[in-house]
Amino acid sequence: MALTQIQPGANREDMNLDAEIALAHRLADAARAEILPLFRTSVVSEAKGDATPVTIADRNAEEAMRRILKAEVPQDGVTGEELGIETGISGRQWVLDPVDGTTAFLAGRPIFGTLIALVVDGFPVLGMIDQPVLGERWLGVAGKGTTFNGQPVKARACARLDQATIATTGPHYFSVEQGEAFMALAGQTDHKRMVMGGDCYNYGCLASGQLDIVCEAGLKLHDYAALVPVVEGAGGLMCDWRGEPLHVGSDGTVLALGDPARLEDVLEVLAGYDGGHAHAGPHHDQHD
Question: At 251, which CATH number?
C-alpha cells in the first residue's frame, strides 16, 4: 500500500489520501466485527477512572484496529481512548475511539459510533464515523466532499439562529457555567426541537442536513478529531467555544455548525459566559 508521505508545511488539502481512506474502511470493518456480536447482549461494563463505562466491545474493537495499523503503518503514531498512546516516527497520528457512546451501546440504542481519524501536523485530515448496527458510515477528507455510505452529503443552510435545531449529548457533561452558556444558546434556537443524546451520531446527522448546531464540552482528541473532516467536508464548520479551529491542543469545548453563517450569532451568545472557560476548572474527559 502506497501511503502518503507528508512533507513539513504541506497543504493538508492537497494530500492524496486514497490509501489512507482504504485503510480507514478496513479499520471500521474490523471494529464492526468486534462490536456487532455484543450489541444488545448481557455484556458487562466497568467504570473507568473518570467514572464513564467501558466494555469488552470497546477494548476488542480498539485492539483489532491497532493490529491492522501495526501491520500496515508501523511508522505512524496511534492514540486510542482505551489503550493510550503509541508514538510514531512519521509525523502522522491515527486517533481511535472504538465505541463513542458506550452508554448508548449498553442501553441498546444504535446511536453510538466508531471514530477513526488521521491527524497531520496537529490537525485532522481524515475522519470517519461508523455506526455498525445501522450500517451507516460518514467519511470526511480534507479538500474533498463528505460522503455517507459512498454518496455525497451536504449540511443545510440556516437563515436565522431561532430556526436552528441544536443537539448535545447531555447536560451532565457541562460544568455549571458551561451548562448556563449552553442553555442560553439553546434558548435562542428552536429549542422545542432540541435533541439530547447522540454522541458522535449527532455530527453525522448535522453533516447530512438533519441538525444545525451541536454544542459540547469536556471532549478529548479521540472524541472530536474524526468529526472535523466529516462536518467541514459537508460545508459545515467546527471550532471551540471561542471560534478557534480544533486541533490536538484544543480545550475540549466543541461547536459544530451546519451553516457557518451562524457562527457569529452563536459566539455572541457564548461570549456572555466567556465561552464557559472562566470557571470550567481543569479539563478532563467526561464522555464515554
Answer: 3.40.190.80
